[in-house]
Amino acid sequence: MCDQREQTRINFIINHKDIFHSYFIKREYGDKMSSFYSSIVQNFLIAFGVVIGASLFSGLGAIMTDTPPLKVMTDVAGSIKLWAIAASLGGTFSSFVVIEKGLFEGEIRTLLKQVFYIVISLTGANVGYEFIRLLQRCGNIWWK
């Protein structure tokens, strides 16, 4: 047997089951807009993380080989941006297939969505690059 407080909670859940049901269904399965937003966030952060991770590990390798780490990090961050974009999109071939479908089969919405994903990935890679450049500028100020 449950106490009065627990019975009140159970009654509340029973009376408002449609609210709880829709919350948990949306949370478990999502909807099209949340899927779109999660793809945007994931594309941005994957591109950002590839640039930052590659730069930090190249800086670590530069320290081990006794070369200037900030210069190596900036060089790697600049050269890996394109690969970061490709990695965040899941490979370039699938992007070309979607773009082809949008152009030749008239699916403009799909084409615009893919172009937006590319722009978001480019933004993430550039933010990562600028973050590494900021580290370099701060390092230059620190050591002067």
Task: Walk me through this protein's architecture.
- It is a single chain.
- This protein has 144 residues and is mainly alpha-helical.
- 88% of the residues lie in helices and 0% in strands.
- It has seven helices and no strands.
Principal-axes geometry comes out as flat
Kindly state the percentage of residues in helix: over 70%
Question: Radius of gyration from the CA trace?
Answer: 24 Å
Strand content: under 5%
Q: How many helical elements?
A: 7
Overall residue-averaged pLDDT value: 80
Unreliable residue runs: none
Structural class: mainly alpha
In N-to-C order, the SSE pattern is HHHHHHH
Distance between the ends: 73 Å
Topology:
Elements: H1 4-15, H2 17-29, H3 32-64, H4 69-79, H5 81-88, H6 92-104, H7 108-143
Helix pairs in contact: 3-4, 3-5, 3-7, 4-7, 5-7, 6-7
List keywords for this structure.
144 residues; mainly alpha; 7 helices; 0% strand
